[in-house]
Amino acid sequence: MKPLTTPAALVLVFALPAHAQKLTLEIKDGRVTLDAVNVPARQILDEWARIGGTKVVGADKMVGAPLSLKLTDTPEKQALDIILRNVAGFMAAPRQASAAPGASSYDRILIMA
Predict the structure, then answer these.
(1) Rounded to two decimals, what is the model's pTM?
(2) Is the dihedral of CA 61, 65, 71, 77 positive or negative?
(3) How far apart are the C-alpha atoms of 69 and 78, rounded to whole Å?
(4) Measured between alpha carbons, how far is residue 6 from residues 13, 14, 15, 75 in Å?
(5) Do 41 and 83 contact (CB within 8 A), yes or no?
(6) Across the strands, what pairs with 111?
């Protein structure tokens, strides 16, 4: 049997599986830009918490199929409505003090899974 050539080996090493995930999130001036491919809503909210400085409560109880979404310059409330459309409900508490650049306009998000 002939060994694999270098280009063929690179294709095998760097080919992404069909279930590969991609997630980018930006929050700016109360608007969200999100590109998510095959990502659980819980993971999107984890990133929202990390980037936006928002405390998310109840995301650990969320279940459901991964989401594929592309939102561009969407108001935060509308983005949350889309991301959380499969949960029983949620509440988002606005931030009292002015937010730092890149921070979410929400201080807390409570999810009722």
Answers:
(1) 0.80
(2) negative
(3) 13
(4) 10, 12, 14, 47
(5) yes
(6) 90
CB 47 within 8 A of CB 21: no
Give Cα separations from 60 to 13, 26, 76 (angstroms): 33, 22, 21
- E-state strands within 1-66: 22-28, 31-39, 55-57
Q: Are strands 106-112 and 55-57 parallel, antiparallel or unpaired?
A: parallel
Q: 10 Å Cβ neighbour count for 106?
A: 23
Res 9: pLDDT:
39
pLDDT tens, position by position, 51-80? 999 999 999 999 889 999 999 999 999 999
Span 6-47, pLDDT tens digits:
444 333 344 445 567 899 999 999 999 999 999 999 999 999
Contact call for residues 47 and 23 (beta carbons, < 8 A): yes
Return the closest-CA partner of residue 37 out of 15, 20, 59: 20
Helices H, strands E: what count in the chain? 3, 6
